[in-house]
Amino acid sequence: MGSVVDACGVCNGTGDCVVSCNATLGPEFVFDCAGVCGGTALVDACGMCTGGSTGITPNVFLDACGVCFGGNAGLDSCGVCGGLNADKDACQICYGENAALDACGICFGSGRFVDACGVCFGNSSSCAGCDMVPNSGLELDACGVCGGQSTCTSTDSDAAKRRKQFSILVTGVSAVSAVVLALCLAALLRCKRQHSRRKYVAMRKASQAAIAPSGRVAILISDVQSSTMLWESYSSDMMVAIEEHDRIFRQALDKFRGYVIRTEGDSYVVAFQDTEDALNAAVQIQHDLMDALWPPAILHDKRLPSDARDSPDALWHGLRVRMGIAVCQPTLTFDERTLRFTYSGQAMAYAQTVGDSGTGGQVVVDAEVAAIAPNRVDRLGVFADALSHRFELFQARLGKLSGRKYNKKLRGLTRADP
After folding, report:
1. Residues 251 and 245 sit within 8 Å (Cβ to Cβ)
2. Which residues of 200-212 are buried (b: 16+ CB within 10 A; e: fewer)?
3. Is the pLDDT of residue 250 over 80?
4. Which comes out higher in pLDDT, residue 21 or 283?
5. Beta strands 390-396 and 377-384: pairing type?
6. Boundaries of domain holding 305
7. In sequence order, which residues have a C-beta less than 8 Å from that of residue 25 and are 6 or more positions away?
8. Which pLDDT band holds residue 163 (cuts at 50, 70, 90)?
9. If 0-12 CB within 10 Å is exposed, 13-18 middle and 19+ buried, where does residue 238 land?
């Protein structure tokens, strides 16, 4: 017991086998974990060589919960390791102690559901007097008079009883009538709202039908290259960058009459009635992206290097956006929830394949686009997808950006011609 193995692998040894990496400096100089003679790098708690010449802070990969490479996954919303949000109150506020809970048990309710009688969700009737005024304190006297002094004579007692009974009957009938009237008004209001909604939906459908491309249309699909990596590395800078990206898209789509079908994160799906409008919009966007002002973190990323914007041969600057344009005939359906037309069917699957095939900064188009603008495209060849569907594809010429080099392999496709 208590025995240890020395650096030479000898039980209870003295480590005499260790040879100095620099005898002139002394026998104690050995290589550290980074391979530096006499270095100070050490293996930290996560088994990583840190400190010294590595430039890595020791235990930098240890999260707040003491887990290596944990990414603070064990922290709950209140910042407690393994806390399982137990410190949240009924209103989901950390350490709130239900201070935001009102007397009716409503979070942030501020007591607005308490009636005049102090009853939660009441109708102020529990403390109403015979005059139906809350907290008035008035009662029917012996003569059936609300707030009276019972001054009627004994000979009038029968009449008083009849008046009292009549008063109760009238009150009951009034209450029932009020309920029936309220129900009728609610039903009438609901019908009116439904009618107004149908009228508004019909009006919106007509206005959207006037601007939504139909029949054979050009579908442009875009996506930012390596966006996930950029978001993980520069989340705050990417928020600024995507705002600029969206501004550029909106400006070009307004100019060339593009109908936005949907946006998914930093991806756009747009329909054009005129195919040349789609091509013009794509080229305009690529040029505007090149000229935009991007956050420095995006420009200095070594994985997607940018050229100086004012350089005469600059080809890359900022976000790289791939685009694809395909001509097809999708099915149009008006969505009453979004009040816009949706485009669906096998045609959209075809357009998606073309849209996904390129790389950042490239505009890939199908044969029908190329036939309309043959002098503005270069042929890439014939390609096939996993289901053996064949696509003859081209890439748009981008004017001053035509010197860009792209991956010869298209994403999700294999070459089908020699």
Report:
1. no
2. eeeeebeebeeeb
3. yes
4. 283
5. antiparallel
6. 212-415
7. 38
8. low
9. buried
Element containing residue 163 per DSSP (H, E) = helix 157-211
Q: The tokens of 82 are what?
A: 């393994």
Q: Calculate the alpha carbon distances from 37 to 21, 288, 338 in Å.
A: 6, 53, 67
- Confidence band, pLDDT 50/70/90 cuts, at residue 132: low
- Specify the number of domains making up the chain: 2
Do the beta carbons of residue 270 and residue 219 sit within 8 Å? yes
Residue range 306-325, pLDDT digits in tens? 998 788 889 999 999 999 99
In this structure, the answer to whether residues 168 and 227 fall within a common structural domain is: no
pLDDT of res. 333: 95
Residue showing tokens 């790289």: 320
Per the CB < 8 A criterion, the answer to whether 117 and 134 are in contact is yes
| Global pTM value | 0.57
Q: Report the interhelical angle of 275-291 vs 235-255 (nearest 10°).
A: 140
Cα separation of 217 and 39, whole Å? 66
- Specify the DSSP element, H or E, that contains 327: strand 321-328
Looking up tokens 């026998």, which residue turns up? 27
CA proximity to 397, closest of 371, 362, 366: 362
Last residue of a domain, one of 191, 209, 227: 209
